[in-house]
Amino acid sequence: MPKALNVAMIGGGFMGKAHAAAYAAMPMFFWPAPAIPVRKVIVDINDAAAEEGRLRYGFAEASSDWRSVVARPDIDIVDIVTPNDTHAEIAIAAAGAGKHIICEKPLARTGDEARAMWDAVRKAGVVNMVAFNYRRTPAVALARKYIEEGRIGRILNFRGTYLQDWSADPDSPLSWRFQKKIAGSGAIGDIGTHVVDIARYLVGEVAEVCALVRTYHKTRPVQSGGLDKLGAAEKNASSERGDVDVDDEVVTLLRFADGAIGSLEATRNAYGRNNFLTFEIHGSKGSLCFNYERRDELQVMFADDPSDARGFRTVYTGPAHPYGSGLWPIPALGIGYTETKIIECYDFFSAVVSGTQPSPDFEDGYLTACVADALGESGEGGTWVKVRQ
Ligand code: NAI
To answer: Is residue 233 over pLDDT 80?
Structure first.
């Protein structure tokens, strides 16, 4: 029987919900599970929030003191699902206590902060993962498989977008995501890094960027308190407004280390786009195209397709594709956001049990943070900036 591993989850907001659901569901999907995730302790900013999280997300205990929790000998895994400014301090303490760590993205606010986290986990020798879950969408993993098999040849061009509209309304509240001291950056770190992660996963290292960065709404209504009020649906009536000091949008050219070129756009202000995480990749022998809003589908065109049937066709992911054996028995039944987190949980627990390093790990989180730093720097000066490696 799989052994049990005790999880301390720090944070019980949007991602706390996703991770808790994955802990409960992972063994139901992937059986035999590498280990059974035990929802041992949930930590939040105060006792009331932690207790609510305990009841809602099925944890045995609640606490408002992450420091004492990460030091507990009965905790095997620390899961960091708090805002970005807390990731480094919690991860470094958890690594020091010998815990395996999964941390939400972006790994940190800056490359320097991410580097300190990577150094800490390397020194401690603990298993570590950064939660860029979109690369675990089966269709995205299938794109990687086709690329590794040489099915589209040498990659020439990567075109990635992440477009949302939840902050398009200037009166949507001043989420922590608009505050540099908490978030580090805006669309760049929040959603642009997901595209960077996919670009690194499918194409390789980004060597240089040339970006335009814009902030459209310089102030937003201060939140009334409590949990983050993300998006216009939670509009705050307060007339008091606070400063936005992060980017709303980034548009950039990319030059990859192996010679491929590309582009990336990320914004949370694109009315009509909801979770428009897309990529199109052109290779010397074919092309691949993906849109998360149709996440069961990968569009493919191979150069040796019959000449009377040229054009993209749709592959619906299912049991024959990556992770398919653990998911649903028929293609296109529909996988969702939760499934990407269940797969992430499966891969992380597999790595912990086998003592191997999963991907993306904190090194990947650091390298992605370096691309984010370069995008911010390039966006200020409008010039090409080399990515620190
Ligand atoms: P949230 O604001 O909804 O939840 C954060 C939770 O952490 C709240 O319950 C808050 O009270 C708690 N918290 C804050 N400071 C704390 C502290 N010092 N100790 C204990 N608890 C504390 O934020 P959300 O959306 O869950 O974001 C968390 C992280 O997940 C961020 O790094 C974010 O970038 C990332 N994220 C990742 C997504 C993905 O697709 N992988 C999607 C959304 C967020």
So the answer is: no
